[in-house]
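Students often ask why inverse folding is considered easier than folding. One informal answer: many sequences map to the same fold, so there is more than one right answer. In these notes we will look at a single instance of the problem. The structure comes first.
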């Protein structure tokens, strides 16, 4: 089955009880948070809203992806935003504090 890997750091790892897992691909980036919310109820509000997200080591702007997708429902999938492909690596990086 085609899949991509997702890496969980800090509080995201604590919340899911995992450091990584495989998710079926392809998946539009705009659907990632909903897919994770269905696996881990409450994660979107508690963790994901404040996370940085990378795809293949490149930071992505989730708010921009969501607004672009919602602003023009007639766009093709590739024009509407990034699609996570088989073999890609996604990382969820919550804010960390130091002191």
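Output (designed amino acids):
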């Amino acid at each position: 089955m085609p899949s991509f890997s997702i890496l969980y750091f800090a509080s995201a790892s604590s919340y899911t009880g995992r450091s990584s897992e495989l998710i079926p691909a392809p998946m539009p980036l705009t659907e990632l948070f909903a897919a994770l919310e269905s696996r881990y109820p409450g994660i979107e509000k508690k963790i994901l809203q404040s996370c940085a997200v990378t795809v293949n080591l490149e930071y992505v702007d989730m708010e921009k992806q969501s607004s672009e997708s919602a602003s023009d429902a007639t766009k093709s999938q590739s024009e509407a935003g990034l699609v996570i492909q088989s073999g890609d690596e996604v990382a969820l990086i919550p804010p960390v504090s130091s002191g």
